[in-house]
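Risk mitigation, structural track. In case the binding assays with flavin-adenine dinucleotide fail to produce interpretable data, a predicted complex structure has been prepared as a fallback.
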Amino acid sequence: PPDREVLGRATWTFLHTMAAYYPEKPNEREQTMMKSLLSSFSQFYPCGHCAEHLRDEMKKEPPKVASRMELAWWMCGMHNKVNTMLGKDEFDCNKLDERWRDGPSD
Ligand code: FAD
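Fallback model:
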């Protein structure tokens, strides 16, 4: 099976970067496509119990796809739930753009 840590780091990089570059004002079609992508993702993520946990969390808190900021913060919240579950520190979601889009300002 895939290495859960290596797969996780690569996948979070993809998910947060995708959210950081999602449109500020997505149209209806883009919003539908993002919902569909995340729903499909949670079916096929190749760590079975991770995917199951993600589907449970997505039922409680469905993806927010109305804007770039909403999607980025939603993703940050999902990742923080996993961080907490694994005993890792929470990430400060105010630093999302610095980490995943713009880089450090200085
Ligand atoms: P990662 O958690 O992979 O984070 C990578 C980088 O993202 C960090 O260095 C930090 O710069 C940044 N970051 C951290 N938190 C946030 C945040 N909230 N928002 C934005 N950026 C952030 N592992 C398990 O053992 N059990 C599971 O059930 C499980 N479920 C997972 C579910 C999903 C959907 C994914 C993608 C991964 C899951 N993993 C799970 C893997 C786990 O989340 C980590 O990826 C793995 O443990 C490696 O952790 P890491 O400390 O290297 O950093």
